[in-house]
Amino acid sequence: MTPSDEHPQVDGTFGATDETVLPMEHGDVRVLRDGPLDAPVLLLVHGSAASSRSWDALTPLLCTHHRVIRVDLPGHGGSAEPPGGDYTLPEQGRRIGAVLDRLGVEHVVAVGHSSGGYAVTALAEQRPDLVTALVLINTGPGLDAFIAPERPPFSPEQWPPTDEQIRVFARTGFREGFRVPQELVDELRGMSFHAVAAAMQAATDYLRLQPLPDRLTALGRPLHVIFGELDRRWRPSSAADYRVVPGARVDFLPDAGHTPILEEPQRTAALLLASTGTPTAEAPQGT
């Protein structure tokens, strides 16, 4: 896609977002870009049943000093479902790498929220030349740490779900009392049941093969883990499992649930920027 094909989306909080749909070999991929063209690149990858819009509150706090690139995973947001329904994490990593190659990006700090942490880990496993460091936000380290109900409260026969069904499904994804933004509700409804179920199963399969700390130890890349202490999907204390990774930094956010990128964007951004060496306001210290 040439620059003339791109349609900037104006966000009143921080200027223009370049929103592009790239025609790729295995389906269209939506990409959102913010910040200076010549700045170091932060890649932001969302979790299952979400989209790049889940980073909306955080992006304005990052793009002053970074080029921020957000990618919708297959079947999520504005990206097409993969031919043959291949949602495996290695395939997700391969597709993200292909997108970054198309954009001419040579190096990224890869940031993943929830199961997006598995996608950026898979990317780093395949493309260590591309990923210089990883930041994982409320990404469960192993299946034994999962504490939420295993299945969504709807079935293929009930699809598309109602607002209430989506909010019931999403409630453990946030701290108690936090209201899920309507735009995220609408985007989930726009997904197919297969995309939601297959992406969740792919994350389970990836962890079943090997816990994430083991994968990250083998990678040898700098690692920063940020975890909300009120997470209702993953046992918060499990974040300490990442300390087996040499040099890993682990930070806890006391008042945040599973999605601090929306619940506590200022504090999350401060921690994230500190891990990239960017001057910022004082951030909470790791515990």
TrEMBL record:
It comes from the Bacteria. GO terms for molecular function: hydrolase activity. InterPro entries: AB_hydrolase_1 (IPR000073), AB_hydrolase_fold (IPR029058), AB_hydrolase_sf (IPR050266). Keywords: Hydrolase. Residues 42-270 form the AB hydrolase-1 domain. The keyword Zinc does not apply. Pfam families: Abhydrolase_6. One of its GO terms (cellular component) is membrane. PANTHER family: HYDROLASE, PUTATIVE (AFU_ORTHOLOGUE AFUA_2G14860)-RELATED, MONOACYLGLYCEROL LIPASE. This is Alpha/beta fold hydrolase. The lineage of its organism: Bacteria, Bacillati, Actinomycetota, Actinomycetes, Kitasatosporales.
